Amino acid sequence: MKRLCLAVVQNHPSQLDGALFQKIAQTSDFDLTVYYLDTGEVSKHVDPELGFSPNWDVAVTSGYCAVSCPRGFLRRLRFLRRECFSAAKYDLVIAPGYARIDLALLAFLFRSQPLGMRLDTAAIYPESYIKARVKSVVLKYLFRRYSVFHPVGSLTERFLESMGISRGRMFRFPYAADNDYLHVRSQAFRLQRDEIRRAQGIPPRQFVALGVLKFIPRENPLELLGGFRTFHATSPNSMLILVGTGPLEQEIKGYVSAHALGDSVRLVGYGKYSELPKWYAVSDVFVHPATQECWGVSVNEAMACGLPVIASSGVGSSYDLIENGKNGYQYATGDEEALACCLKRIASLADRGRRLGEYSAQLIRAWDFQATIASLKCALGAMGCDSADRAARASPVLVTDRGGVV
């Protein structure tokens, strides 16, 4: 059986997809090449919301074939045309969403290469009527060029359906965490739980809520502080750990000081990827309060580490990963009282949410790398790639109204 020849075009490397690509490259089914559009050194990639490089301490571009595209718009166009869009050398090329003009141009100018699109659009955020209408017209036209689509979750599937894309052309490509890595590291840290808590001045039996987020308005750390403050007023044997940094850091410190929360809130700074399991291991519940987060992979991470999770309705992953009352709760974004109530429900359980966390760990198994690999195989199988001769596909790919490829 021939190997499936797959190319994935990415905007830039990340600690999440890097581990996935390593796993794909280890399988005997795929011949994988990943093209990175952002050609700067990984260690120097600046997160625009933070203003500095995340400086991941896990490998993100090794263990698989990673190719950096040339700098400059025209040079990048020529390179991608030659490598990805005109030679029909791949069974499938997966593009990163619909926002890039260069990829849209290549998709329409060179039609011999079958294309897929990975996207995380969640149509749950406010948008003007005119913008929504224009987007709908443009995207319905653009989407005709793509053979298959790779939504990250159910919200994106619903968006694609609203654009006229059938379910038969959708194959999930979620933002998945390295569940095994996180589970093993968090279990090791859990053995040191009391010692780590002691170092942070946290009593062994204190109920600990955790936030891992950027200190920016979109990720909404002040709402988490407000909800915790309300909860803490009636549950004083509690503490909040905030892992992160960003422009709102001084405002957060001012809030903690103004509301006399200095003994109950710990700001531990930016956490490298390998350090995150430590904070998951010493906490009792994880909270993601973002107002607009198309997915929110930290929810995956917390669940892999065995924590119950609370997330706002602005967090896309909460619609797929949270089963209310079973492994956590979703609350309406902006409602600090509802957030406090969710914290109280979990803290009031005799086992402090341990059973909810165990159910989290079970649920997240369906969102692992193997599930993604299986979904990619299904996409290629649906396109006839198991038996098709790549050289015979030099003619344009046409997508029928019913979603078939002819």
Compact description:
This protein has 406 residues and is of the alpha/beta class. The chain is 38% helix and 15% strand.
Structure report:
This protein is of the alpha/beta class and 406 residues long. The protein folds into 2 domains: 4-176 and 368-392, Glycogen Phosphorylase B (Rossmann fold), CATH 3.40.50.2000; 179-366, Rossmann fold (3-Layer(aba) Sandwich). The chain is built from 15 helices and 12 strands. The strands form 2 sheets. The protein has a 6-stranded parallel β-sheet with strand order 3-2-1-4-5-6. Strands 9-8-7-10-11-12 form a 6-stranded parallel β-sheet, sandwiched between helices. α2 (73-85) crosses α3 and α8 (221-234) packs across α13 (336-347). The longest helix has 15 residues, at 129-143.
